[in-house]
């Protein structure tokens, strides 16, 4: 197979550069001189080519060259970008590994390289991890124009060894046709930033949000050759949003190279105009929100104590309208039904925003990327995500802000059916409740519906287009009427005002919503691993008590249908399959024997932590520490995976033994 002339010359140039870099020519001259002195006989006038190659092989020169050159076993014509979306090889100069990625030569790409970090002073005293030793790690997550990337985990250190490259497609969403590549002017109008989230994972797999940064990448459009190096200072989150946590060295490069770069002055002017436009829109909305609030208080002075939340602080301490935290979100083929979406949101971990010292709850509404990458968040994060997913399924969904028992602030989701049915969705548990209002004008003897939901008061409801303040005489949920079109009960904000700052692309300060990612967890492998670890932990625990342990594999297998049934019930609210499970257990337990089982559910995969929790239950401890005649133990683990590598872990411990009276 012959290469095109331009490719052949390019290949020759690359080989020449590599040989020059290794100073191969100088080493060959030295070996040639040495060989002539040592091996050339007096009667010989010259060395043959074979003699010289033998000498080079003997001294390892050829081996060194072959190690430095990377070859791919695939056909060469597959590596050349002759047609769209053919595999093209990118070699990182820092690494000898050859990486492949699909690229379209008619599209424009931004190649973002992270070339190490420094000044992560919190880890200044961090000892160097030994080979094979578990240690805390940093992971960098990126989102840009519906594309998501994740770096390799690197050990936490004062200077973390980040060396990753990400190929971000800029030319998306009908920016020109397929035959015309986006030019510099077109790309200058793309205001989407690269959202970077830094996550720390400790040795127990617990995640912490370290930093959230929006990278303005368009400076590369005004740099020479379309290449620029940046030093990015990452700030902390929440109460530490003004404190630097570290610095990343970043290199940006346009691919293919720009034919014509813009002047830096043009780029700076465009960015300044966008900032000015955004600031003006935000100022006008703030003026409107103040006026709306004054009018709301004039209806009834007691409204001042209601939880009417117009703005909320994100992880960077920036006040944003609450409507900007919600947007219709489609899960593609990752989630099939609204109830499955509720289950997915439920299995994401719950954690209140950390606060230093006392003084009540620290408020922090996370951007969606930060919430998904950390895999846990506060009730508001869960409610915003669930509302976005339900809107994506075509439901009329709203986030409700109010209180639970004892006046604890809380957020949940509400859907309004076309028949007037109002349903509350608790995003932390996946439970659904029908709302039937109590009529306060009914006589005391009249039977009133008993609310099953835990909510006490409601101050406001909102979604991506609507914001409504509750202006009914009482803010009690049980007596609240959810006729949202009745302005005597719900005071609306202007939809135009909301859209001016919350509609997609309305302002450059609005973080774009990322797509959901499929799970990377192998459910079968993970289930087996946790099960084997639990067997070992149970055996050791019983050994400490002076008890032997005999496992019965068949009994363990029979527990599987029960675990599947429990998860199905959590997802659909329908119970199914229990009859077959009970029948199988009756057949497996002989007459005169007793069977005991204990199911439990977790949203993490740490076997030791789960076992410690199980032992705190007297029912479970009774099974694990069972004494008697012919004791047989069983344990079954079933991991159900969801997007974003969230998972529901069901564990069932069981035993059977001969009853001795």
From TrEMBL:
Asked whether the keyword NADP is assigned, the reply is no
Residues in CEP76 N-terminal domain copies: 10-69
| Gene3D superfamilies (UniProt xref) | 3.10.620.30
Give the Centrosomal protein of 76 kDa C-terminal domain ranges: 520-658
Give the primary localization class.
cytoplasm
InterPro entries in the record: CEP76, CEP76-C2, CEP76_C, CEP76_N, CEPT76/DRC7_peptidase-like_dom, Papain-like_cys_pep_sf
Query: What range does the record give for the signal peptide?
Result: none
Instruction: Give all residue intervals belonging to the CEP76/DRC7 peptidase-like domain.
Output: 363-493
Protein's cellular compartments: Cytoplasm, Cytoskeleton, Microtubule organizing center, Centrosome, Centriole
Query: Domain CEP76 C2, which positions?
Result: 102-259
| Sorted UniProt keywords | Cytoplasm, Cytoskeleton
**Sorted alphabetically, which Pfam families does this protein's record hold?**
CEP76-C2 (PF15627), CEP76_C (PF24652), CEP76_N (PF24654), CEPT76_peptidase (PF24656)
GO cellular component terms given for this protein? centriole
UniProt keyword Ribosomal protein, yes or no = no
Q: What's the subunit arrangement here?
A: Interacts with CCP110 and CEP97.
- Per its database record, what is this protein's job? Centrosomal protein involved in regulation of centriole duplication. Required to limit centriole duplication to once per cell cycle by preventing centriole reduplication.
Family per UniProt?
A: Belongs to the CEP76 family.
Classification via PANTHER family: CENTROSOMAL PROTEIN OF 76 KDA (PTHR46436:SF1)
What name appears for this protein in its UniProt entry?
Centrosomal protein of 76 kDa
The organism named in the record is Muntiacus muntjak (Barking deer)
Lineage, uppermost ranks = Eukaryota, Metazoa, Chordata, Craniata, Vertebrata
């Amino acid at each position: 197979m012959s290469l095109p002339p331009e490719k052949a010359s390019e290949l020759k140039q690359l080989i020449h550069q590599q040989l020059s870099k290794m100073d191969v020519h100088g080493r060959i001259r030295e070996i040639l001189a040495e060989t002539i002195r040592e091996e050339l006989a007096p009667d010989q006038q010259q060395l043959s080519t074979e003699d010289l190659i033998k000498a080079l092989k003997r001294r390892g020169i050829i081996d060194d060259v072959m190690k430095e050159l990377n070859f791919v076993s695939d056909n060469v014509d597959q590596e050349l970008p002759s047609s769209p979306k053919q595999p093209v090889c990118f070699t990182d100069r820092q690494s000898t590994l050859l990486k492949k990625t699909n690229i379209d030569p008619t599209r424009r790409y931004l190649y973002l390289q992270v070339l190490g970090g420094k000044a992560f002073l919190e880890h200044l005293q961090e000892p160097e991890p030994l080979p094979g030793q578990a240690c805390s790690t940093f992971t960098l997550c990126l989102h840009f124009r519906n594309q998501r990337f994740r770096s390799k985990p690197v050990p936490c250190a004062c200077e973390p060894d980040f060396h990753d490259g990400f190929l971000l497609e800029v030319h998306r969403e009908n920016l020109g046709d397929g035959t015309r590549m986006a030019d510099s002017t077109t790309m200058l109008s793309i205001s989407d930033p690269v959202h970077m989230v830094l996550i720390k994972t400790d040795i127990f797999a617990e995640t912490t949000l370290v930093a959230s940064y929006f990278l303005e990448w368009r400076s590369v459009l005004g740099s020479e050759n379309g290449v620029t190096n940046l030093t990015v200072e990452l700030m902390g989150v929440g109460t530490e949003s003004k404190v630097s946590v570290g610095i990343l060295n970043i290199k940006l490069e346009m691919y293919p190279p720009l034919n014509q770069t813009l002047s830096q002055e043009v780029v700076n002017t465009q960015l300044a105009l966008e900032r000015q436009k955004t600031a003006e829109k935000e100022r006008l909305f703030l003026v409107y929100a103040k006026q709306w609030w004054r009018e709301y208080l004039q209806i009834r002075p007691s409204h001042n104590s209601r939880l009417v939340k117009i703005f909320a602080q994100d992880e960077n301490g920036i006040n944003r309208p609450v409507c900007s935290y919600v947007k219709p979100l489609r899960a593609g083929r990752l989630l099939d039904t609204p109830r499955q979406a509720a289950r997915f949101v439920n299995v994401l971990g719950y954690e209140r925003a950390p606060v230093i010292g006392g003084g009540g709850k620290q408020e922090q509404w996370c951007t969606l990327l930060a919430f998904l990458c950390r895999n846990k968040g506060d009730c508001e994060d869960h409610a915003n995500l669930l509302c976005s997913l339900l809107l994506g399924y075509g439901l009329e969904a709203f986030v409700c802000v109010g209180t639970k028992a004892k006046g604890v602030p809380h957020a949940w989701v509400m859907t309004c059916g076309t028949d007037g049915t109002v349903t509350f969705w608790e995003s932390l548990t996946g439970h659904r409740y029908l709302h039937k209002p109590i009529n306060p004008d009914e006589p005391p003897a009249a039977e009133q519906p008993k609310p099953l939901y835990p909510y006490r008061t409601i101050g406001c409801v909102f979604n991506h287009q609507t914001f409504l303040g509750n202006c009914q005489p009482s803010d009690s949920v049980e007596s609240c009427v959810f006729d949202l079109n009745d302005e005597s009960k719900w005071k609306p904000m202007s939809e135009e005002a909301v859209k001016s700052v919350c509609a997609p692309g309305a302002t450059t300060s609005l973080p774009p919503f990322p797509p959901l990612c499929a799970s990377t967890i192998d459910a079968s492998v993970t289930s087996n691993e946790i099960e084997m670890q639990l067997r070992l932990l149970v055996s050791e625990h019983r050994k400490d008590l002076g008890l032997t342990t005999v496992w019965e594999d068949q009994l363990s297998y029979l527990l599987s249908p029960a675990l599947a049934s429990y998860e199905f019930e959590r997802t659909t609210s329908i119970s199914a399959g229990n009859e077959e499970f009970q029948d199988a257990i009756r057949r497996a337990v002989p007459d005169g024997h007793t069977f005991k089982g204990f199911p439990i559910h977790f949203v993490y995969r740490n076997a030791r932590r789960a076992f410690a929790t199980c032992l705190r239950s007297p029912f479970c401890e009774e099974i694990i520490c069972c004494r008697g005649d012919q004791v047989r133990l069983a344990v079954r683990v079933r991991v159900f995976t969801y997007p974003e590598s969230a998972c529901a872990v069901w564990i069932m411990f069981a035993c059977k033994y001969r009853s001795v009276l």
